Amino acid sequence: MVQQVTKGIKISVETSFEGTFYKNYKMQYAFGYKITIENQSKDSVQLHTREWTILDSLNNIEIVAGEGVIGKKPLLKPGESHTYSSGCLLTSPFGAMYGFYNMENYTTTKKFNVAIPTFKLSAPFALN
């Protein structure tokens, strides 16, 4: 598990390899990840947007940005957490992801970014 705290918001990431399949005549490697966003600050915060950088070992880079996470914009009071699962496809058995969430502090009304730490994606059969 990879963890990081930014401005009182703790991000924890667990990854899994889901399998391989062919799409458009190319091998695809499917990975899952589970993220827990925990509010360790004294203020209520809401997640508004997210941005991901997805890398694979073939030097492919994909940027994904949008509102919320899996269709939700969780509001977290102090001590609360939100967990969700998602996934990505790579064209190689190794890669990594990192990014940030843009959140709003409801006490100060200020928006701020919370780092999503870099986490590795690797197919176990490809490891020595």
UniProtKB/TrEMBL annotation:
Gene3D superfamilies hit by this protein: ApaG domain (2.60.40.1470)
SUPFAM superfamilies recorded: ApaG-like
InterPro entries in the cross-refs: ApaG-like, ApaG_domain, ApaG_sf
Top-rank lineage group of the source organism: Bacteria
Domain ApaG: 3-128
Protein's name in the database: Co2+/Mg2+ efflux protein ApaG
Species for this entry: Formosa maritima
